[in-house]
Design brief:
The protein is an all-alpha fold. The protein has helices at 3-14, 35-49, 55-59, 64-72. The longest helix is centred in the middle third of the chain and has 15 residues, at 35-49. The mean pLDDT is 89.
Length: 78
């Protein structure tokens, strides 16, 4: 999954306008950023790319970019 695809999916989970996320946004400012969005994102990463993200890794993220970085740093298994 590309960065753009990841952002589009995150926009869906956060219930924001498509194309609105750029990276520096604070996740806590989005009413849609909750445990369901977090679990959906973790499931998406696993389902689409086989990327294993932990709840702890994602919960520590404060910005959209940090979440993108966590995804990028966890490549899918061979």
């Amino acid at each position: 999954m590309t960065r753009a695809e990841f952002l589009r999916q995150l926009e869906t989970y956060l219930e924001v306008k498509p194309g609105s996320l750029q990276g520096p946004e604070e996740l806590a400012t989005f009413p849609g950023w909750d445990s369901m969005a977090l679990m959906s994102l973790i499931a998406l990463a696993d389902r689409s790319d086989g990327v294993r993200l932990s709840v702890h890794q994602c919960a520590e993220c404060r910005t959209v970019q940090e979440l993108v970085d966590v995804f990028a740093k966890n490549p899918s298994p061979p």
